[in-house]
Fold Protease inhibitor-like protein.
Amino acid sequence: SVRNKRQADNILNSSNNNGTTTSSLDECKRSCPVTPEYNPVCGTNNETFSNPGRLICAQACGENVKLARRAPCPPAQNK
């Protein structure tokens, strides 16, 4: 399912730190206690968050983002 794939991707992304430095914002967002629920929302930064808790987490970590809509963000338009 999509939810299981996202969970697997999150696990891979969080444990695959090939010597690259991650920002404190990324570290903060990874440490948030959020549910695995897939209920996508779009932030004002045009980033799709997997659920509202992840958007709230980003805000708590200092990211300047608000809820744009309760659905995935539309694909970026390449012009």
